[in-house]
Amino acid sequence: MAEILNLSTSTVSKSLLGHSDIGESTKNRVLELAKKMNYQPNLFGKGLRTQKTMSIGVIIPDITVHYSSLILKGIIESAKGVGYRVIISESGHHHQDEKDAINTLINSNVDGILLSIARESHDIEHILEASNFIPIVLFDKVSSKIPLTKIIDDDEFGAETAVQHLIAQGRRKIVLIREKCKTSNSENRYRGYARALSSAGLTVDDVLVRECDSMSIEDGFAVTEALIAEKIEFDGLFGATDNVAIGAIQAMKKNGITIPRDVSVIGFSNSKNSTIIEPSLSTMEQPGFNIGKYAVKYLLEEISEDSDISTNRTIELKTKLIVRDSSPI
Amino acid sequence: MAEILNLSTSTVSKSLLGHSDIGESTKNRVLELAKKMNYQPNLFGKGLRTQKTMSIGVIIPDITVHYSSLILKGIIESAKGVGYRVIISESGHHHQDEKDAINTLINSNVDGILLSIARESHDIEHILEASNFIPIVLFDKVSSKIPLTKIIDDDEFGAETAVQHLIAQGRRKIVLIREKCKTSNSENRYRGYARALSSAGLTVDDVLVRECDSMSIEDGFAVTEALIAEKIEFDGLFGATDNVAIGAIQAMKKNGITIPRDVSVIGFSNSKNSTIIEPSLSTMEQPGFNIGKYAVKYLLEEISEDSDISTNRTIELKTKLIVRDSSPI
DNA sequence: TTGTAAGCGTTATCAC
DNA sequence: GTGATAACGCTTACAA
To answer: Which domains does chain B have, with CATH numbers?
Structure first.
C-alpha cells in the first residue's frame, strides 16, 4: 500500500490511525486507497506491536444448556458491535478443564476472559492467579469468594418472588428442590425461599428442602418420587431450575397428584420446556441475553482501564415472574 | 529464555520445534527449562512468520437452537483436541450478516471456516468468492450448489425411515409439515417422504403436504389447526422438525384428536422437548455432535493439504429412529 | 552442532 | 508534514 502511493509505511500508518500530524491531502489519498482495496491491517503485526488482539475468551460449563447459549448470544452480539472476536471453550464442569481453558486463552493473547465457573471448581486459586495477568469478569455461575466483577441475575429476589407467588395462593407447605452443590446460585435461591417463608410467618421445614446433584429432569423426578414415597405432605413446590420442576410435575402426575389443584408448582429459568409440559410451568424468567451483554460491557471497561486493581462488584439483573397453568392466580 | 541458557534464539526455537540438527543435551536443557517456566510461544510472532493462527471460525444462524449448540460442542471439543481455537459468530439467518462474518473471520486470519448457511442466503457468491482465499467446510445447512465439502445428516434416508415407520403401523394418509424455504434439508426430507410413500405403493397427495416459514412450535400448531379446519382426513403426521411436530400434537389435542389412536406422529431431531410433550414424540435422532466432529476433521484436512482445489464432497451421517408414545409399534 | 541475520506487518520515536 | 528506523517474538536460510 505504501509503495503504490509512494509514501513511507509510517505515513500510511499514521493516516490510518488518524494521527494529527499528517496533511489533509495525503491523509485522504491514503484513506481512499484503503477503502478501494478494502485494506485490513494484519492482526499479527498489530498484535505484536500493541499486545492487543481485539478478542475475548469465554469459558462456560456446557454450551448445550439453553440458558448458556442465550447468554452467549448476548456476548457474541455485543462483542461484534465493538469489533471484538469471541473465542469459546467449554469446561464440562471440570476443574482441570477450566484451568486448562484459562491458560489456553491467556496464551492466545485474548484481551480478557468471561468465566462461568464449573461446578467442580471449589478451588479457585487458578482464577485468582489468572486475574493478576488478565481482566476476568464472572457471569451466571460465580463465587462470592472471588473479588472480581460478577454479572448475575437476582437469584435471591427471584426465588423470593416465586415462593411469595405460591404463598399468595394459600400454599403453606412448600417444597424446595435445590442443588446439592453449594454454588452461589443455589445458596441465593435458598435464601430467597427462606426469606419469603419468614416474611409470611412460616418457618423452613428441613424435610421439605430436597437436594439433587445435576438439576436434571431425571433428578427432579427422583427427588419428588422419594418425597411422595415418604408420605410427606406438601401443597406447593419450587424447583430451583425449570428442569427439576418439570421432573417433579412428571412424578406427581404419575402418582395421581393433580396440578395445580393439589400442588402449585413454579420453576426458575423460563426455558422452552416450561411451555411444553402439561400443565405449563410458571417460572421466573432469567435475563440471559442481558447478562451476556453486560458481561461484555464491564469486561471491556476493565480491559481499557488497564489498571491492576481488580474491581469487586456484583451486577444483579432482574428476573421476572411468568405465571402459567401450574400455579394460576 | 535464550539468555538464561546462554543460547541463541534460533537454537532455542529449533529445539522447541524438534529440528534434527540440535544436540541431544542442549535440546533437553531447552525443553526442561521450557517446561519449568511453562513457556508458551507468542502467537503473534509465530503467526507473523507462519501465517497460521491455529484457530478456526464458525458461522451459524442461531446459537440458541439446541441442535446447533450440540454441533458446536462437537466442534469445540475436536478443535481443543488438536490445539485449535474456535471463534464463533452468528448470522441470525441474515445474508448480509453472514457476509460480514466471513469477512471478519478472514481478516482475523483464521485458518479455515465452518459455515452453516443462513436461510436468507440464496445468493451464494460471497461463499464461492471466499472459498478462493480460505478453506471452507459447510455443515448442517448446506447448498448443493456450492462445490465444497459438506457435512450433513442423511436427511433423505432419515425422512424415509420416519415415514416407513408410520406406514408400518398401517397409516396411509400421512401429512408432511415441511419448511417453505427450499433449503437442502427441506428438499431432502421431502424426497425421503415421497420415496417412502411410493415404495409402499402410495402417492404424494399435495393437500397433505403443508409448508411453514420458521418451523417453530407455533408454526406447527397453526398449520395443523388449518388442516383440521379444512376437514382434511389424515392418520399419520411427519413433522420435518420436532418443533412443528410438537405444535401439531398440541393442535390435535386441542381439537379432540387422540394420539396415537387417531393419528401417529413422528418428528425429526430428538430435541429435549420431544420427551416432555405428551404423548412423548417419536423422532429421528440427528448426530449433532458427530457432525461437529467431522466438520473439524475435514476442515483441518483441507487446511493442511494447502491445495487450491476445493473438494466437492458430501459426508452424510446416519440418523436413528427413536420410537416413543406418539407412534408405538 | 550452533549462531547470525533477515524478515513477517505494524506502530512509536525521533530526525529531517 | 513526512520519512527512516527500531522494535515486538518468532522461524529459517545460511554462515561458522
So the answer is: 2-36 (no CATH), 47-153+288-317 (3.40.50.2300), 155-286 (3.40.50.2300)
pLDDT (tens digit, 9 = 90+) per residue, A75-93?
A: 999 999 999 999 999 999 9
Chain C positions with an atom below 7 A of a protein C-beta are 1-5, 7-13
d(C-alpha A113, C-alpha B110), whole Å? 20
Cα distances (angstroms) measured from residue A258 to each of A232, A253, B3: 16, 6, 76
Closest Cα in chain A to B70:
A64
**Residues of chain B neighbouring A281 (CB-CB closer than 8 A):** none
Best of A68, A77, A85 to mutate (most B CBs within 10 Å, chain B): A85
Model confidence, pTM: 0.92
Query: Residue B101 CA to D10 C1' — how many Å?
Result: 29
Of the candidates B74, B136, B69, B86, the residue with the CA atom closest to the CA atom of residue B290: B74
**Does residue B207 come out as left (phi exceeding 0), alpha (psi in the -120 to 50 range) or beta?**
alpha
Q: Is the pLDDT of residue A241 over 90?
A: yes
**Would you call A86 and B88 a contact, using CB atoms and an 8 Å cutoff?**
yes
Burial of A206 (0-12, 13-18, 19+ CB in 10 A): exposed
**What angle, 0 to 180 degrees and rounded to 10, lies between the N-to-C axes of helices B184-199 and B155-168?**
40
The rounded percent of chain B whose pLDDT value lies above 70 is 98
Query: Looking at beta carbons, which residues of chain A come within 8 Å of B77?
Result: 90
Task: For residue range B280-323, list pLDDT tens digits in order.
Answer: 999 999 999 999 999 999 999 998 875 656 689 999 999 999 99
Check B63 against A76: CB less than 8 A apart. Answer: yes
